[in-house]
Amino acid sequence: MPAKGKHRRPKSSTLTRGFVAASTGGAAIALPLLGATGAHAAEQSAAPATAPQQVVAAAQTTQAAAKPAPRTYTVVAGDYLAKIAHNKNVKGGWQKLYKDNREVIGEDPSLILPGMELTLGAKAAPAKAKPKADEDRSEARASRSAAKPQAPAAKAAPAQSAPKSSASGFTAPVDSSITTPYRASGSMWSSGYHTGVDFAASSGTSVKAVGPGTVVSAGWSGSYGNEVVIKHTDGTYSQYAHLSQLSVSSGQSVSGGQQIGLSGSTGNSTGPHLHFEIRTSPSYGSDIDPLAYLRQHGVSI
């Protein structure tokens, strides 16, 4: 039979033909194969180039997430800026604490209210100011302004009731509340503690001699600003500092309750108030508890 015994030539695969053509036709097919291999190698070498950028971005994200949040403190009854700055180790003292939280506290650093949230060591965001604190602060300022002697309504307000004069002729220096107590500690005072008491008193509030005596000095006194010092009949001395105006002069005799000046913020002061001391001598450093002294003389405060 004609077809018997013939060998059929098998079909060459594409891969086989490619190699044959390469062997007979030179490098015509070899070049595309080499080009593909080079491109694959180029892709492999280019791929790791983006890895360092990804690592840096991831590291930055981790650092941002790990950054600690600023410390905060919520004011409680009895607090004042120097006390908070001292207890919480705020670098820069009460001045730094006030500067960072001025939008929360307001213009008067001596008037902080329970519930205020203060940022320690960093500037507070405006959103930290609580509407209720703002309302309470405004009410407190209005009450403090109303506490002047010429405002009869202030005497009827329980929170700002005026201390009564005693039968001995002694009285409180102003008709308002205490903002900073005696012996409060802090770096803001050169002695390391508060040598008197601070009374809340807006500028222009009448300041009275606490008892009968003689004015030993009336004028400028460095960090105390305008001050008056009176020697009383029992041998003690009273001091009234940061006054905006003086109403007496040295050598003048005064009676308990007599106006000797107006409150202010002269000298080294954080804002309008009255700094009041009782001393055993006319000089700084001989202070005694002023509230205890007034109570011994029958003044309810």
Give a written overview of the molecule.
The chain has helices spanning 14-24, 30-46, 51-66, 81-87, 93-100, 102-105, 131-145, 152-156, 290-296, and strands at residues 71-74, 117-120, 178-180, 197-200, 206-208, 213-220, 226-232, 237-246, 253-254, 259-263, 273-279, 287-288. With 301 residues, it is of the alpha+beta class. The protein has two domains: 71-145, LysM domain (Membrane-bound Lytic Murein Transglycosylase D, Chain A, Roll); 157-296, Glucose Permease (Domain IIA) (Distorted Sandwich), CATH 2.70.70.10. The strands form two sheets. Strands 3, 4, 5, 6, 7, 8, 9, 10, 11 and 12 form a ten-stranded antiparallel β-sheet that branches. A two-stranded antiparallel ribbon has the order 1-2. β11 (273-279) and β12 (287-288) form a beta hairpin. The longest helix has 17 residues, at 30-46. 29% of the residues are buried.
Give the gist of this structure:
With 301 residues, the protein is α+β, with helices and mostly antiparallel strands. It has nine helices and twelve strands.
User: What is the CA-atom radius of gyration, in angstroms?
Assistant: 41 Å
Helical residues, percent: 25-40%
Structural domain tally? 2
**Residues in β-strands, percent:** 15-25%
Shape: elongated
- The CATH homologous superfamily of the largest domain corresponds to Glucose Permease (Domain IIA)
Mean residue pLDDT = 72
Low-confidence stretches: 13-37, 127-135, 138-164
Query: What is the count of helical runs?
Result: 9
